[in-house]
């Protein structure tokens, strides 16, 4: 039987990071110094990534106080150590393209800096000049939250309570949307953000018909789709499964759309629901430690306490593990499994 995990995501978050010592100033006020935290950085310093280094996996769990703890699945750092997200950086390449990156600081038991890590939101190339043009301490947590936040893109058709298909950019707070699990539900908040379509922000395109969807469905890579299997093609042990869009890539009808900009939308209800986007079932925003920073502070605190997860019967769904899809054409299997 195919293994599956409960529909709730594991609490730890895994990010590819470089050690600060792998990313040094080659020209500027801090020449020779490694990447550091915001207080020590100088704008216009030029950095390069060391030749031959590769990112490691930093796994962390939120502490609930804006800090994190390095978890046992991390391949870097000290398990159990406290970790802080210090700032967001904007780096410019010689051609004028910009890359955002997040700086994490690991501290020891005495509160001293033990290690600094750089999580780039787009690939970095060795021996390439990156000029530091921006340091932002106010929005770093929001950038991290957005990178893993379930999001639809402009133009996505959402099924309303009356059956009408409405483009997501035309929705308003208070509109009634059809949910799979709880009928008509009122929208409480809509988020809208435009970002560069690179790295974790590059959307996944699911072409029309691939999963029995009416039109192209373009979503954030971590957006989970709900599929009711009329026949258990994945051997999941139950009919209801959820799968992240990035696990369905096949290089043909489901692919990454890199380059340019993408406008993402998040829809919040009183509870975490399954709605219909381009005619197929997909989850809405779940407020938890990972995504709370996307919302205005008062809403984040309110909905984090009130959202237990999906409503019955959808809470019985299992999330399919990526490893079990690697040798399968998951999209074709799921399309056949969900067809009448």
Summary?
By secondary structure, the protein is mainly beta.
What would your notes on this structure say?
The structure is a single chain. The protein is mainly β. It is globular and about 60 Å long. It has 3 helices and 25 strands. It has 2 domains: 13-137, no CATH class; 146-339, Endonuclease - Pi-scei, Chain A, domain 1 (Beta Complex), CATH 2.170.16.10.
Count of runs of 4 or more consecutive helical residues: 3
Order of helices and strands: EEEEEEEEEEHEEEEEEEEEEEEEEHEH
Helix content: under 10%
What would CATH call the class of the largest domain? Mainly Beta
Rg calc: 21 Å
- Share of β-strand residues: 35-45%
Q: How many DSSP-defined strands? A: 25
Spatial arrangement of strands, main beta sheet: 2-5-6-7-8-9
- The general outline is globular
Write the topology of this structure.
Elements: E1 4-6, E2 13-19, E3 23-27, E4 46-49, E5 56-62, E6 67-70, E7 82-92, E8 98-107, E9 113-120, E10 130-136, H1 140-147, E11 152-153, E12 157-159, E13 165-167, E14 176-179, E15 183-186, E16 189-196, E17 204-206, E18 217-219, E19 224-228, E20 240-244, E21 254-256, E22 261-268, E23 274-277, E24 280-283, H2 297-306, E25 318-320, H3 330-338
Parallel strand pairs: 20-25
Antiparallel strand pairs: 1-25, 2-5, 2-9, 3-4, 4-10, 5-6, 6-7, 7-8, 7-10, 8-9, 11-22, 12-13, 14-15, 16-22, 17-18, 17-21, 19-20, 23-24
List key phrases describing it.
340 residues, mainly beta, Endonuclease - Pi-scei, Chain A, domain 1, 2 domains, 4-stranded mixed beta sheet, 3 helices, 25 strands
């Amino acid at each position: 039987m195919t293994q599956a995990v409960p529909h709730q995501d594991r609490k730890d978050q895994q990010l590819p990071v470089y050690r600060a010592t792998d990313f040094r100033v080659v020209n500027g006020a801090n020449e020779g110094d490694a990447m550091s935290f915001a207080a020590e950085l100088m704008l216009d310093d030029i950095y390069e990534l060391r030749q031959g280094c590769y990112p490691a996996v930093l796994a962390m769990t939120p502490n609930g106080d804006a800090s994190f703890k390095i978890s046992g699945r991390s391949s870097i750092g000290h398990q159990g150590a406290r970790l802080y997200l210090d700032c967001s950086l904007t780096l410019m390449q010689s051609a004028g393209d910009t890359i955002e990156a997040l700086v994490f600081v690991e501290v020891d038991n005495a509160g001293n800096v033990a290690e600094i890590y750089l999580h780039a939101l787009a690939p970095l190339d060795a021996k390439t000049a990156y000029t530091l043009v921006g340091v932002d301490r106010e929005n770093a947590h929001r950038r991290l939250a957005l990178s893993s936040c379930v999001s639809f893109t402009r133009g996505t058709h959402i099924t309303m309570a009356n059956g009408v298909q409405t483009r997501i950019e035309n929705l308003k707070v208070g509109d009634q949307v059809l949910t799979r699990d709880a009928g008509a539900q009122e929208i409480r908040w809509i988020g809208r953000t435009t970002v560069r379509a690179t790295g974790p922000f590059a959307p996944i395109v699911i072409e029309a018909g691939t999963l029995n969807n009416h039109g192209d469905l373009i979503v954030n890579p971590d957006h989970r789709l709900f599929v009711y299997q009329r026949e258990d093609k994945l051997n999941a042990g139950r009919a209801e499964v959820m799968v992240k869009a990035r696990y369905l890539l096949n290089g043909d009808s489901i692919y990454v759309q890199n380059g340019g900009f993408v406008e993402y939308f998040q829809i919040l209800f009183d509870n975490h629901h399954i709605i219909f986007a381009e005619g197929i079932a997909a989850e809405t925003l779940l407020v938890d430690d990972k995504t709370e920073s996307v919302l205005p502070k008062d809403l984040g605190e309110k909905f984090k306490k009130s959202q237990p997860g999906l409503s019955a019967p959808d809470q019985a769904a299992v999330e399919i593990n990526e490893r079990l899809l690697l040798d399968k054409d998951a999209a074709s299997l799921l399309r056949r499994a969900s067809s009448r």
